[in-house]
Amino acid sequence: MTWAGVMPAMTTAFDANYAVDHAFLAQHAAWLLGNGCTGLVMLGSLGEGATLDHDEKVEVLKTAVRVANGKAPVVAAISSLSKSIRPDDQFILIILGHGSLSDSKPELVLPGPDLDPDTLAKSLAAVSADNQVILNFSGTGGDFLKSLGKKNRVNIAATSPQENAEPVFAEFFLRALESNRADGEAVPAAGTKDGATSLLEAYNWATHQTALWIMRQVGNKDGTWTLSGKESVEIFKKLYDGPEAPITPGGMRADGSRKLSDDSDPSKPDEPVPLVLPPDLKPHDTANWAGRRIINEHAQLEDAGLEDGALSALRGDKGYDPIPIGKPGEEGARAARVTFGKPALLPAPEK
User: Fold this and answer.
1) DSSP codes joined into one string, 175-208
2) Is 12:28 a contact under the CB 8 Å cutoff?
3) CA–CA dist 39, 55 (Å, integer)
4) Average pLDDT rounded to a whole number, residues 290-319
């Protein structure tokens, strides 16, 4: 969105019982927009943002969005949150949704005006937590990284700049945290088997597993996909199963779903597969590569506040090349000490 014109910070009206007066709120918002205001800022310091509970805030925003009706932006002020967060807290922002690259300008698609990286960065400037984590699982996550870098912040994006895919990385990242399978990933260069999954370990593991899952899928002439492995088939069905819409030549239905072939075998183990063509590939082996999906998402990590410092664990002809634990101030150093949901940093790894 673009900050232009008059965008007032609205007060929040209450009735005689100290409940939010939504009728007056809607009337006031309509009057403001009808008399030249170009947007509404809700729940700021004048909007009782620090005194309303979560559900009350949601209802205030719903009222404002309904009145604006997509014709003007409604900004949810982060002031109340920034005032309640202390330096010794952990601040986590998870971004899910459809990304858009309009004229190469990255945005997160929202009802009404979309969200761009600079606007998000300005909204987060007042957050004082020393331990900040942004997990951007949208298709334009990689394009947000330049604007969101900060020395006390770990940024993980599901895609690299300009990819604008519909990523599946979030599925594997959450499995890394829930199952603790990522603990000790790429020991000793990138992790430590200590019972605590760092964000660096979760990132590396999820990036590898995402790539393996994509490369296990083989397209067939009838538009279906063959895939073996218990977890691989389970995830395919979870993400792609849909109604019987027509299948396009690329194997994708009109609604974005995919159809699993009848010969897919969920009883087999989830075997590792090569992520790049072997240099000594023999002609008769090329059939094993025919029809395989191409890896179209390369998750990135940035944790040193460097504008061009984002790295990916999927690198060119190397395939999976985990990001190692960096020296203090380098990429990979902070993410190795941050765990999800815990404000305190892990001890610095011994070199």
Assistant:
1) HHHHH-TTTTTTTTTT---SS--BHHHHHHHHHH
2) no
3) 23
4) 90
